[in-house]
Amino acid sequence: MTSHWLSLGLAIVALGQSGSSAMVPAAGTAVPRAAPVVRPAQPARPPQAPTYLANRVDELGKGFNGRVGIAVRSVNEGWSTSWNGNELSPQQSVSKLWVAITALDAVDRGRVRLDDRVSMTRSDLTLFHQPIASKILGGGTTITLGELMFQALTKSDNTCNDKLMRSVGGPEAVRSMIRNKGLGAIRFYEGERSLQSRIAGLTWSPSYSIGNAFYEARNALPMAIRKAAFDRYVEDPYDGASANAIVDALAALKRGELLSPSSTARLLTIMSQTSTGKNRLRGGLKPGWSLSHKTGTGQILGSTQAGYNDIGILTAPDGRSYSVAVMIKKTSVPLPVRMTLMNNVVRATIVQHEMRYSPSITL
Fold first, then answer.
1. Contact at 8 Å (CB) between 169 and 191?
2. Which residues pair with 245 in a beta bridge?
3. Longest dimension (CA), the chain
4. pLDDT tens for residues 124-140?
5. Under a CB-based contact definition with an 8 Å cutoff, are residues 284 and 344 in contact?
6. 3 pLDDT band (50/70/90 cuts)?
């Protein structure tokens, strides 16, 4: 009996040794190691906006009697701050900037040249602000694409803007540019004639381009129809854009990420000559600072205006830049109050810059 159990034990030991020896690699064989755990890289956190400016933008937004989006971005350092920065606001003539970028992108790609000439006739007329109308009604005129862009940006000429848009591919070309360059929450409608007519509750007619015909047709509509169309536009603007998307796009423009160096320089130079809105953002400048900007002004129903805007690139004497957008979606406050808001956003940005780069200046 004892010998039986002894034999069984020896067999078990032999089996265990045999199994364990099979698991031991031969001499010189590398021992496999467990694959390292690969964790996805965490996206870098964007720089935090300076406390003073963030608080001041919030204060200005909260204190304004109306719906407004405000955003400021440092082109050089990458931080941004905003108040209601993601809501879509009516752009109105701010959208002329996207037409200009589309045109210059076409130039960069060799599709058109700025010295290409186009003829303008009565069929090109739009409505509201169109200084070129006097030349067209005087017998027609020819003009270069470069001049169309200059007049559209510096004088906010609606007819020049729409002609430029059609000359480089129409509304879809502008929308494609916005998509392809990843500009985000920025819409573009069908041009000034269609946009302004729809806001008023009308369908565009060429007769509206002459004299007071548009105003007369708009005034002839029942107020209920006008108000419904106006309110619908305010709540979901066909040309809407967020303040955050606008300052991001402006910063990309300034950094040379949207256009060639020559086209970037040309566009910013033209925008520095804007003659509209002299007391909007520009009213907050200090000596030595410069602004390349574009304004936008919407229709009024009663005492309420849908869209009163200014956006631009603010550059300090030392060359550092900030993109700024003040998009007043809806308000009834007097114009000086709106302008003061815009002035104060620029002043706050300048104060923040001086606190950061001029050690002698503190709050």
1. no
2. none
3. 129
4. 999 999 999 999 999 88
5. yes
6. very low
